[in-house]
Amino acid sequence: MDFYLMANQILIVEDDLEIVDLLEIHMKDLNAEVESVNDGLSALEKAQHKDYDLILLDLSIPKLNGVEVCRELRKTKNTPIIMVTAKTEEIDKVLGLEIGADDYITKPFSIRELKARAKAVMRRSDAANQQTGDSKSTELDFGDLKVNIEMRRVTIEGKKIDLSPKEFDLLVLLANYPGRSYSRSELLDVIWGYNFSGYEHTVNSHINRLRAKIEPDMGNPIYILTTWGIGYRFNEDI
């Protein structure tokens, strides 16, 4: 279903009331019902108890900053997040992407660009959810490692493994096509989206964290293998 047919639920997290007013006006143009909060603790509480289609998250907010909100939310939710901030240092952008933000835009920003990015992020999220629902199997069984796609649950020898949303999506994509090698740019495009061009190291970081959680021996992985000169693949011999 196209997301235009239903009202999108958007949460604005921003402590500058003038910017909040501006964002509310233009996000409503995307057929959205908009809510806003001005601190991180309120944002986290709302986002944990309601499913939003998009969160516009300012980095410098009181009580709990945007990075901390994103990090905590990513432990349980895959809600699309665009970080909005006045900071332009590269380290801030990289940090935002590393902890699971879907996109990043700096102030002052073009409203047209922000709306385009918001629509793109929501479309990618909608497509990813459909892709997960259309996966070849609702459960993948690799002996000790089992992946229940519908429940987003991973177990090893019956023990539940806690994965972040992006780690889970990476695992499902690779495990659905054992032996198929994906380049880092392909994984960025499928899992994160086109706006992440040039941030291939983000894939490496997530793959390393995924391996740390599912591999018996990080030095000799048996599930997620490296295809030298290309990227990564799921072991086709399991």
TrEMBL record:
Residues 137-236 bind DNA. Transmembrane segments: none annotated. The modification 4-aspartylphosphate is found at residue 58. It holds the Pfam family Response_reg. SMART domains: REC, Trans_reg_C. Coiled coil: none annotated. CDD domains: trans_reg_C (cd00383). GO terms for molecular function: phosphorelay response regulator activity; transcription cis-regulatory region binding. Residues 137-236 form the OmpR/PhoB-type domain. GO terms for biological process: regulation of DNA-templated transcription. This protein is a positive regulator for the phosphate regulon. Transcription of this operon is positively regulated by PhoB and PhoR when phosphate is limited. This is Phosphate regulon transcriptional regulatory protein PhoB. It comes from Nonlabens arenilitoris.
